[in-house]
Amino acid sequence: MSVEETLQAQEGLAASATALGTAEQKTKDNPNPQMGEQYRPSLATRILGGGVGLSIGAMIAAFIVGGLLIAVTDSKTQQASQYFFARPSDTLIYGWRAASEAYVALFQGSIFNFEANTFVRQINPLFETLTVSIPLILAGLAVAIAFRTGLFNIGAQGQIILGAIFATFVAINFNFPLVVTLLLIIIGGLLGGAIWGGLVGLLKAKTGAHEVILSIMLNYIAVYLLQYLLKNSLQRPGNTNPISPIFEDNAIFPRIFGDGTPFRLHWGFVLALAAVFFVSWLLNRSTIGFRLRAVGANPGAAKNAGISVSAGYILVMSIAGALAGLAGALQVSGTEKVLNTGVAASFGFDAITVALLGRSTPWGTFFAALLYGAFRAGGTNMQVSTGTPIDLVLVVQALIVLFIAAPPLVRAIFRLPDPAKPRKKSAKKKASQKAVEAK
Amino acid sequence: MSTAVLDTPREEKTEIVKNWKNPTILSVIAVISLILLGFRAPAKQVTFRLGDGIRWADIPNLQIPAVAYGWVAAVVMIALALFSLVLMNRGKKMPLILNVVFWFFFISGILVWAIGSASSSNVSLVSILSGALALSIPMIFGSMGGLLCERSGVVNIAIEGQLLFGAFSAVLVGSMTDSPWAGLLAAMIGGVLVSLILATFSIKYLVDQTIVGVVVNVLVSGLTGFFFTRILQANPAELNSAPKLPGFEIPVLSQIPVVGPVLFNQSVLIYLMYIVVGLIWFALNKSKWGLRTRAVGEHPKAADTLGVNVNRLRFSNVLMAGAVAGMGGAFFTLVSVSTFNADMTSGQGYIALAALIFGRWKPLGALMASLLFGFSLQMQFVLSGLGTTIPTELLAMLPYVVTILAVAGLVGRSRGPAASGKPYIKG
């Protein structure tokens, strides 16, 4: 047995011991004497009722609601429903067809297109998903890290824009070799976002102003600043539209698989992945992260323990802003290769739901961002090929988060067991059995 | 959120520092105004037409030389800022009325300066102001909806969703029944439905209120966008063209110069707004319901001890808030234009939230803040219509910058309802 394995085994033991301890405590603390008998949830209960089961249940429920929406608004289904009582099967068949076609298109646009002729084309949607998810990962982290410190960063949108502005400024004005320019672009993006986010943290810490209001206002200011700059110093020469010059080759992140393939995925994805590792380390392994989490968990207690709450707010908002700013920089110099007014799309707002879905953990946010990237990439294909509006994707996304946020609801829908409580039914059964035995 | 916890220990320590914020900010604004309004004033006469809509007399136009007015405004503002610094040095606050004077000169100074730098400097004051009032309607209703929620302890980020769904329901039902009144009723019901989600998840399932609010906004944006493309656009003549709410003139009152046509010759929704704001102000401050609502928002446990059913009151207040905000949504499709468009509320729900906080969670404060936002929105339209040389983007930024300054400087010390955002679990 190697050292690592021993350690792991010990950790496992310790974990099960603490689990047992809490279980025992629970039964001890249980105020209800009738349920005093030892209750330990079975493995199936824990899996079905815990995080995984809930997430899957929430997704299924959200997709079912989305499917119903597609079916109900489908014109053929509506026609068939007029003679529903004469031949109900028609309505159901048309409805099923409309919903399944849309979802197949969603899948084909986001993961694997089995209708394409070459393998490269078939697998291309997956890489499109990864490309789209880059800004979502970074902005999602920006929201998540602030959440963990007890702040609601609704301003990722503005931070993305500022990052993009700074990056574009670098790209237009400096003409260095590729690596140097890209490094400057990254620094610019980080800096731009950090200023915008740090401003929120600073004002919150120094004046006590509410961060939600500050970031909403800064979002609008960023939008107008972008519009202004695109008509002035950042505008493409000889153009009246609000658009920047196309980036030179030395200011563009190269594609990971080279220019020969159709895959748009660029090295920015690796940076985003690195950011996930960084935030994960920062939050879970570093002193700073510990302080930030302490501030988030209980600012009063953190203050009493000698942790500066103000410094925590300023720091975390700067880091969050820098992450979102990097998203903006990668978006202009990796994916779009140009700056226009739509650079931030709705990434900053999607990032909020991404962070919520990922429960504000770095890796949770990463996978949630991949899922949202898939929705975004697939939604476009769904709209083009089946005419189902991409807004459906928003509905499904919102429903997933709502369902996940309210576990009792999903448990009620799917009759999943609740790991925290013994099943009421079985308890009742036992009670009735006892009653019978007593008789 | 965590602010309330944090503010308690900090307040005593930084009391003196915080008091310096208002004078400092006034001074900064005054100096900027001196540079902008005084030194960079356009050498022009600005003409305000005052007589529109008045039938009984011929009211002369107001002619203002931009340079002179700019200097007067800047000097008055500097004087007031200095006065507030002197007062603060003696540990006193500047009286509210002088603050109002300061902001009046700032806003009117900017107005004169901006119109003076346009190519046409002859404008109707009545149409500017009545347009501003109309544009602030959704924000006023929205902030009232937010107020009803927050004063009873539920954060309402979902104002945007309530407005949007109100607008959608209004156009759908209004077009189907061909009656704007049915549309208005539908808007209120639409707002209530959105509130129902907010209330169910945040009060029954104890999900974080801010999170529910944000997610509900996404949900409503998606749903209305989906139905708009799928249903409304398929049959725009029958489903997406609602009749407008009628407007009428209140006799006598509407003949007061300037004020009359602005306030009393409007759409019926604006008169409804007066009633709603008045009712909320009265009910909140003078009625049993208001006392209970405020108690539940500040200290739910105390209210519970005295026999108030905290969660039931919160639930009904959130639903009521939906109805109020829904009426604001009706503005978009029953007053402004008569067709729905995807995401047509364009973030005004968030501005309404800002107005609520800017207005210190009070009905009249929120009303004034909403009017300020409406005014600046109107100025963008007016100035781009006049062909101004100032970049409209920078002007458009102004209200947001002012809000940040105000939230950081003026109202930083005020705090929201203590229990806002915290679910109440009995026991």
TrEMBL record, chain A:
Keywords: Cell membrane, Membrane, Transmembrane, Transmembrane helix. It is found in: Cell membrane. CDD domains: TM_PBP1_transp_TpRbsC_like. One of its GO terms (cellular component) is plasma membrane. Residues 420-439 are annotated as: Disordered. Residues 422-432 have a biased composition (Basic residues). This is ABC transporter permease. One of its GO terms (molecular function) is transmembrane transporter activity. It comes from Rothia aerolata. It comes from the Bacteria.
TrEMBL record, chain B:
Its main location: membrane. One of its GO terms (cellular component) is plasma membrane. The chain crosses the membrane at residues 20-39, 68-89, 96-116, 122-141, 153-175, 181-203, 210-232, 263-284, 318-338, 394-412. It is a multi-pass membrane protein. This is ABC transporter permease. One of its GO terms (molecular function) is transmembrane transporter activity. PANTHER family: GUANOSINE ABC TRANSPORTER PERMEASE PROTEIN NUPQ, SUGAR ABC TRANSPORTER INTEGRAL MEMBRANE PROTEIN-RELATED. It holds the Pfam family BPD_transp_2. Keywords: Cell membrane, Membrane, Transmembrane, Transmembrane helix. It is found in: Cell membrane. It comes from Rothia aerolata.
